[in-house]
Amino acid sequence: MSTMYRVTNPATGEVAEEFATATDSEILAALDRSATTFTEWSQTSVADRAAILTRVSEIYAQRAEELAGVIQLEMGKAVPEGKGEVGLSSAIYRYFADNAEAFMADEPLRGPEDGTAMIRRKPVGSLLGIMPWNFPYYQVARFAAPNLALGNTILLKHAPQCPRSAQIMEEIFIEAGLPEGAYINIYASNEQVADLILPDPRNHGVSLTGSERAGSAVAAEAGKNLKKVVLELGGSDPYILLDTPDVAKSASTFFKTRMGNTGQACNSPKRMIVMDDVYDEFLSSITEAAKKFTPEAPGDEGSRLSPLSSVAAADRFIEQVQDTVKDGATLLAGGKRYDGGGAYVEPVVLADVEKGMRGYYEELFGPAVIVYRVSSEEEAVEMANDTPFGLGTAVFSNDLERAERVGSQIDSGMVFLNAPEGTREYLPFGGVKRSGVGRELGPLAMDEFVNKQMVFKKN
């Protein structure tokens, strides 16, 4: 069997299951089914589409334990975290089911009294989604839910290491009553995306969540074929601590946030920027926490540290850390692989990271904490903005006005004040600079792949 799609347990490195990569004829047939079903699905009432999404939400909630177990095997996520992801996915489907009619309501336009005008939101056609491995259900939900609510149809190319969860998601849609062809899972290659799907006139856009390299390649192909893109790419989000009455508590909050999903989240706070009057105590607290953080088998209740998604991911992470230390950074904790195989790595704490080092500009996609010392708000803002990314920001201060003042100067798509960065179904998600283009979640998600048709009626 020719395949790039396989389930490899990151805790052991063993291949558990393989799925055949689609043939060219299967890809073309999927395109045809998706385009044909669009005619039916786009003419289905918004209320009926919403009812199906509500049922999808219910199925996710009912099957949470099973679904969490699947991604534990695929990419190493501990079962408690996996169940949390399933719950968030369920909430996303319900949110767009509950709000679809309001989000799609005609929008009146004011003008001279010679007529009436409005914006009418209509679906555009079959879309391609290219999704990553780090949140197998959630990433799909935030693309699929708003677009299915709109009446678009979807071809979904998931990450090669998540073929089982990809298959299950298609099955859930069908079980919920979605017409076959409205959502199709495809085990496509990158070449099939570039050579078959994006040039095909039956495709009307592509949404990708992934690396800068993948986003750049897909955007280039989409642009060549005049297709709209939504890109959610990397992040090197700053977490700015201006002042705090309890340094140890602030350090604990940051560390727990950073270690979520074993540090494998684009909006995870990867740069801790701390005022110098609390820097030493903060760094000491973070280092102590990291040294206590030990691996446990993924899936165990209370699991504290799961493996990275793959052995290759662990190798790259350790290489980035070692290169940064070699260039002069101070390694205070971690930096090695755990014995026993698999993709387990020690949590890392780095200080004295400077420009020119890999750790300064590259995204460390794993359990790494980088702490920077600053002596003023101006210096904190300058450092926070000194990155090619611009996804999210968190700013903490006892003085909310101070936090707002600093937060308003950060070049990012999202700002959290006195709260760690997080995801909620009603909050728009997306960034600027090399973190991507477009927005997902919240009311803005339904403004991406939509025909905002102007309708004018002469009086």
UniProtKB/TrEMBL annotation:
Gene3D superfamilies reported in the protein's UniProt record: Aldehyde Dehydrogenase, Chain A, domain 1, Aldehyde Dehydrogenase, Chain A, domain 2
Pfam family, one: Aldedh
Residues annotated as transmembrane: none
Superkingdom, natural source: Bacteria
Record domain Aldehyde dehydrogenase: where: 4-455
Repressor among keywords: no
Residues making up the signal peptide according to the UniProt record: none
SUPFAM superfamilies given in the database record: ALDH-like
PANTHER family according to UniProt: SUCCINATE SEMIALDEHYDE DEHYDROGENASE [NAD(P)+] SAD (PTHR43217), SUCCINATE-SEMIALDEHYDE DEHYDROGENASE [NADP(+)] (PTHR43217:SF2)
Official protein name in the record: NAD-dependent succinate-semialdehyde dehydrogenase
Species the sequence originates in: Brevibacterium picturae
